[in-house]
User: Which sequence fits this backbone?
């Protein structure tokens, strides 16, 4: 088990990278604590697989250093780093049985036959593979093959970390949920550093204690699901986490208020003061659940037009127009809203201010 530090990691697949867009990773500087359950979450193409392969040693970064427990492993192979990695698609020995596939990583390490048998049966039990333990891998369904791949990643208890690269892509949705729970249980038992790559926020937020959000080759925030929800460090985090994502409105500041297309939105003093000292393009952000939609102006209500009301069961998603801006509000069941003119209140404590995409703090 290890604490993994990344120092100034950049990576380009080009031989002579020149401009910023030539880099798949643009300067990753983060620490993954020993025993943590992490998710690395970001849209397709943002650099997740590249980063995972650099952590495991399959890929050598263009620049930067990787430390495991303070020791520089930058030039070591995955075997030397003692890493288990599970890929998006099954990687198995087709001619071997399930038992053989699961036993292989242990035989390679000189574990005794008794211990191998015990451990393989344990892992097979956890993943419900006992019934096919003597079947050849070649004859298995895609689901089962991927479960065996997961098993190969989990079979050794002495690894520095286990890295999963979207391991449930080929798995049926029902089973996905089940396997995610299993992985979480296994983490709670073994306390091995786990890094789980996904583009699916539900998967990330239910699996991990800490979620790293990646966009365009950068990690913009690492935090608990609650941190990411309540205090996004970057507009991308606000937009990517939550459904629908955070609302953003470009604004200017006047005294303790934000001005959006002539509308006046009161801010708390501290936020406004910080904003006035900040250069760059300003936006306020607020989660749909915190917008309060009313049928009268009240105090400081901002006039909007209700365009659409979507019933989602226990709440409704209401689409509002504020001047030329679209806002989405999550309105609880039972609270009246109708199409046409309405007023929306922005509770000060839930307004976040961003300058050039970064939160102002
Ligand atoms: P993700 O796993 O988040 O989908 P990747 O790490 O696979 O993203 O890719 C990051 C970027 O690097 C993408 O622009 C992708 O096209 C590029 N890329 C990935 N692998 C290679 C490769 N072997 N050669 C050239 N470019 C690559
Ligand atoms: Mg990938």
Assistant:
């Amino acid at each position: 088990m290890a604490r993994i530090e990344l120092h100034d990691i950049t990576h380009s697949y080009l031989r002579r990278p020149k401009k910023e867009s030539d880099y798949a990773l643009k300067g990753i500087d983060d620490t993954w604590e020993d025993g943590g359950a992490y998710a690395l979450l970001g849209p397709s193409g943002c650099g997740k697989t590249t980063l995972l392969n650099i952590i495991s040693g399959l890929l050598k970064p263009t620049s930067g250093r990787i430390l495991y427990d303070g020791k520089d492993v930058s030039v070591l192979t995955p075997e030397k780093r003692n890493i288990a990695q599970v890929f998006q698609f099954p990687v198995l020995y087709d001619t071997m049985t399930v038992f053989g596939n699961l036993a292989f990583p242990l035989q390679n390490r000189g574990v005794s036959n008794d211990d191998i048998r015990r451990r393989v049966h344990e892992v097979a039990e956890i993943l419900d593979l006992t019934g096919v333990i003597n079947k050849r891998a070649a004859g298995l369904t895609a689901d089962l093959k991927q479960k065996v791949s997961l098993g190969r990643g989990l079979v050794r208890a002495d690894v520095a970390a286990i890295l999963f690269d979207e391991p449930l892509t080929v798995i049926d949705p029902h089973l996905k949920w089940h396997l995610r729970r299993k992985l979480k249980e296994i983490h709670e038992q073994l306390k091995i550093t786990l890094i789980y790559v996904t583009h699916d926020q539900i998967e990330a937020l239910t699996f991990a204690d800490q979620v790293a959000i990646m966009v365009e080759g950068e990690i913009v925030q690492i935090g608990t699901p609650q941190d990411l929800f309540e205090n996004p460090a970057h507009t991308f985090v606000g937009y990517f986490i939550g459904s629908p994502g955070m609302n953003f409105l470009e604004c200017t500041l006047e005294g303790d208020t934000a001005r959006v297309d002539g509308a006046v939105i009161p801010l708390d003093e501290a936020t406004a003061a910080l904003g006035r000292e900040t250069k760059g393009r300003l936006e306020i952000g607020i989660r749909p659940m915190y917008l309060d939609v009313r049928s009268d102006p009240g105090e400081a209500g901002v006039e909007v037009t209700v365009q659409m009301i979507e019933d989602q069961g226990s709440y409704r998603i209401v689409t509002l127009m504020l001047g030329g801006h679209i806002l989405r509000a999550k309105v609880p069941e039972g609270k009246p809203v109708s199409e046409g003119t309405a007023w929306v209140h922005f509770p000060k404590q839930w307004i976040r201010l961003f300058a050039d995409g970064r939160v102002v703090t």
